Automatic annotation (TrEMBL):
Protein name listed in UniProt: ECH1 protein
Gene source species: Gymnorhina tibicen
Pathway: Lipid metabolism; fatty acid beta-oxidation
One Pfam family this sequence matches: ECH_1
InterPro entries tied to this protein: ClpP/crotonase-like_dom_sf, Ech1-like, Enoyl-CoA_hyd/isom_CS, Enoyl-CoA_hydra/iso, Enoyl-CoA_hydra_C
Gene Ontology cellular component annotations, sorted alphabetically: mitochondrion
Keyword set includes Lipid metabolism: yes
Any one Gene Ontology molecular-function term assigned to this protein's record: delta(3,5)-delta(2,4)-dienoyl-CoA isomerase activity
Amino acid sequence: RELVECFQDISRDPSCRAVVVSGAGSAFTAGIDLSDLGSAFAGSPDEDVARRAWSLRQRILEFQESFSVMEKCPKPVIAAVHGPCIGAGVDLISACDIRFCSQDASFQVKVGREGSPGPPGCTPVSPGVPGVPSLVNELAFTARVVRAPEALSCGLVSRVLPDKATLLEVALGVAAAIAARSPVAVQGTKVNLVYSRDRPVAEGLLHVATWNMAMLQTEDIPKSVQAALDKKGPEDVPFAKL
């Protein structure tokens, strides 16, 4: 619930242009609390099975939203992963647009160990993770640990940094670079990338054309052109909030 509320606020906040998600403890995520999960999704044994299933489905949809809300957020979201990233944490970072990790990071989906198809509503690898069916299937079936070098080689993350301090410095630096760009361009780009990901090229291009018939009229374009002529960077342009 807190993730949903947080990212809904971020989506509406014109002062926010990029987001970094990191862990405060010794791990990025320690995995879900199974006892807490059981109580959250348990229904009354005396309740009609159809009604119990209907209620459970609503709770599963709410659970899914805690991750998909990050993908729906128009602001780019950067995951900075240190230490273990376990279970639903993998789903969480999969919903982020950019993923960095420290050298000590590890990733694990404990579906097989927990004797269930995974936390309600979660898949071993969400749409944001590269589609490598063999590897995805292996991780889902075996629950083996993926270390940082392998995560980089398979595209789960795009950078591996030596330690948590460097990781956060780089992640915040990338966020600052994104925030310096035109919010019309950045947020429009994310909307179109997400829309086009699982659709035919022609449909994606049509969506971009419809989107840009309005967005290309932004005042940010002449500002950017003038900055380039003046040999200035985007951080020198006073782009209005969006």
